[in-house]
Amino acid sequence: MSSAKKVRTQPPYELLYWPVIPGRGEFIRLVFEATGTSYKDISNESKDGINAVLACKDDKLTVDDDGNPPAFAPPALRVPGEGKDGKSLVLYQTPAILSYLGDKLDLAGEDEAEKHWVLSHALTALDLNNETHDTHHPISVGAYYEDQKDEALKRATDFRENRIPKFFGYFERVLKGNEPQGEGKHLVGKKLSYADTTLWHVLNGLKFAFPKEVEAREKDYPLLFESFYTSVQERSGLKEYLASDRRQPYSNGVFRHYPELDRQ
Amino acid sequence: MSSAKKVRTQPPYELLYWPVIPGRGEFIRLVFEATGTSYKDISNESKDGINAVLACKDDKLTVDDDGNPPAFAPPALRVPGEGKDGKSLVLYQTPAILSYLGDKLDLAGEDEAEKHWVLSHALTALDLNNETHDTHHPISVGAYYEDQKDEALKRATDFRENRIPKFFGYFERVLKGNEPQGEGKHLVGKKLSYADTTLWHVLNGLKFAFPKEVEAREKDYPLLFESFYTSVQERSGLKEYLASDRRQPYSNGVFRHYPELDRQ
User: Fold this and answer.
1) Are residues A137 and A234 in the same domain?
2) What distance in Å separates the CA atoms of residue B247 and residue B261, rounded to the nearest whole number?
3) Of A81, A104, A127, which closes a domain?
4) pLDDT band for position B3 (cuts 50, 70, 90)
């Protein structure tokens, strides 16, 4: 497998995100990798890159030198030349970045209806991502898991029993409704969108975090797991990326494997 | 005060949301009201309207007669004539609906940079909305508050002490950075956007849900509470709406007043 990036286009997109973990930055990486788009993963590629991440979310920042607002939290995307008066544009919030890149990289459907469905489905997949996070941090994002473990056991039980089937069932129905065009491989229309890459990563993360729960359920959602999940990860661009050392392993981010939170 | 709607434009937008509560549907209502746009609040305006809400999120629906995917949850927006082949378009997910209407109703800034900042800030305000919800439902959205009250007390404490100042401080900085153009009245640029209406409603809801906490803190965020909050609610369109019987009172939705969760 090649670990070299394919290079297709300018502008030189810069991802501002924490190093090492996949985290929410991964949703942005996947759209670049799926389209062979050159980008700079700034904190993973340069020693001082973390400083740019910290700077865009600095608690004292009101507006940056290029006229951009501060980021509430990473990920952020910097696009030199695309901001006010030819300066750098900085965007934050994963769905906003995906919406921007979806238009630029042709990952947002074929017309206005599809464009908005893609955003809707990506937001729903990101809601599932966020609910996964809250299984291990149901009380405080700033406290240790060990200090909210009792509550985490309760929240994870509800998540596994009620929320996972609700989300999986929803996406199975979307794939079914779009099957005449998408053949079970795409949520919207005939081609890959950022809704597909976003949902794929959440499913991949859930397989890591809740392996027993997902294994017990996946046969109930054949389009989602047999058709969609396998076809997305085999796509040119994504396949090479997922086998490369640019794909960061899960650790202590959104998707964590605590066996006690999984199905027993 | 008039309780009649101003009427400006077609198409005949239809909001599909639960009756009686403000809920997430309120973010959509506010953009219509702020722009004097005609819309049908279907479950509040017609006896059978609730059936359309239930139908768009039906657990068996894969695709509707007009080619739209099911909604994961309300709110949804139906726009007759704007879908595939001149059929009805149905969108779901609050930020996706706001993004769509922002373009149509001129509430999304003046250029591409501003458009994406508006979406980013609206998403952040909606994150605060969602975290507010989780203060009374930290374990299970499907269970009663009374059955998760111990955990709610812990989560609400963290929310009040850590999350509220983080979000308020962030928006204060955004208003400060944009002050040369927005004069403390707008998050982005020179004019009203759906980021403004969205943040306003979340602040209004927090004043209802956590009155002591907000009162104790608001002096620390003068642009947010003295300039921004008061100016948005005085705007033509919004002012009349907020005084009308179309504005639903808070009850058992996202924003609930449980005195025990507020600052003691």
Assistant:
1) yes
2) 25
3) A104
4) very low
pLDDT in tens, A104-113: 999 999 999 9
Q: Do B99 and A100 touch (CB under 8 A)?
A: no
Number of CB pairs < 8 Å for A and B? 149
Kindly list the residues from chain B whose CB atom is less than 8 angstroms away from the CB atom of residue A148: 154
Query: Does the beta-carbon distance from A119 to B96 stay under 8 Å?
Result: yes
Verify that A150 and A234 share a domain, yes or no: yes
Instruction: Select from B61, B93, B111 the Cβ nearest to the Cβ of A173.
Output: B61
DSSP state of A239: H
CA distance B248 to chain A (A): 26
pLDDT at A25: 97
| CATH classification at residue B152 | 1.20.1050.10
Which member of B139, B151, B174 has the closest CB to residue A70?
B174
Q: How confident is the model at residue A10 (pLDDT cuts 50, 70, 90)?
A: low
Residues B98 and B110: their CA atoms lie apart, in Å, by 16
Cα–Cα distance measured from residue A193 to residue A102, given in angstroms and rounded to the nearest whole number: 7
Residue of B120, B129, B155 for testing the chain A interface, max A β-carbons within 10 Å: B120
What ipTM score was computed for the predicted complex, to two decimals?
Answer: 0.95
A142 and A228 part of one domain: yes
More confident residue, A165 or B9: A165
E-state strands within chain B: 13-16, 39-41, 76-79, 89-92
* Phi, psi of B23, rounded to the nearest 5 degrees: 55, -160
* pLDDT tens figures, B15-47: 999 999 999 999 999 999 999 999 999 999 999
Residue B192, token pair as written in the block: 């009203």
The first and second tokens of residue B147, run together, are: 């059955």
Domain that holds residue A203: 112-261
CA B60 to chain A, closest CA, distance in angstroms equals: 8
Q: Looking at the domain assignment, is residue B189 inside a domain?
A: yes
Tell me, yes or no, whether A218 lies in a domain. Answer: yes
For A5, which DSSP code? P
Domain count, chain B: 1
| Cβ contacts of A86 on chain B, cutoff 8 Å | none
Confidence check: pLDDT of B170 > 90: yes
Structure tokens at A224: 């989602």
The pLDDT value recorded for residue A38 is: 94
Q: What angle do CA A110, A113, A115 make, to 5 degrees?
A: 60
For B69, which residue in chain A has the nearest alpha carbon? A174
Dump pLDDT digits (tens) for A165-197. 999 999 999 999 999 999 999 999 999 999 999
**Least confident residue range of A142-151, B9-18, B210-219:** B9-18
Residue A6 located in a structural domain? no
Question: Domain check: are A146 and A238 in the same one?
Answer: yes
